[in-house]
Specification:
Blueprint lengths: L18 E3 L4 H10 L2 E5 L5 E3 L5 E3 L4 E5 L5 E7 L5 E8 L9 E7 L5 E8 L2 E7 L3 E5 L4
Antiparallel strand pairs: 1-4, 2-3, 2-11, 5-6, 6-10, 7-8, 8-9, 9-10
Length: 142
């Protein structure tokens, strides 16, 4: 699956993988997640994937733009939690965008569209999700 070009440039050096979570009280965060009717969903099939509350910063920012070795440009958002995803293939360290992290392709568990990558380090992991492939949807009964 090809990504649509989002930017004519690539980052020459990936940002530091230093992880900083947007500070939220854990109990308030849990209550907000349970009460929030909004979810970021797969743009193709509307499968719920994550929430805005799960946003984190990696290397000092939530959003990153990268170009893969084949020349496809991706705009990623970093998240600490996600669901409704299926891993595709084994973790790989080749051409990683975050030093020290292996990556593993993630697809929507409902429709199979490529939604991003799971980034795995010995003591850390996060989701790098392709932002143009997610849409904010409100679930009135949530």
């Amino acid at each position: 699956m090809q990504a649509l070009p989002l930017s004519p440039f690539s980052l020459e050096q990936p940002p530091s993988p230093k992880r900083s979570v947007i500070p939220l009280d854990p109990q308030l965060e849990k209550e907000r997640k349970l009460s929030s009717p909004k979810r970021l969903c797969c743009v193709h099939c509307m499968q719920p994937i994550t929430t805005e509350e799960a946003r984190i910063e990696i290397g000092g920012q939530h959003t990153h733009i990268f170009t893969n070795p084949a020349g496809f440009v991706y705009r990623l958002g970093c998240f600490r939690e996600a669901e409704g995803l299926q891993k595709d293939g084994p973790p790989c360290h080749d051409a990683t965008w975050f030093a020290g992290y292996a990556w593993q392709i993630l697809r929507c568990a409902s429709c199979g569209i490529h939604l991003g990558w799971l980034y795995i380090a010995p003591s850390d992991a996060f989701f790098g999700l392709i932002l143009p492939r997610l849409i904010l949807k409100e679930f009135p009964d949530a």
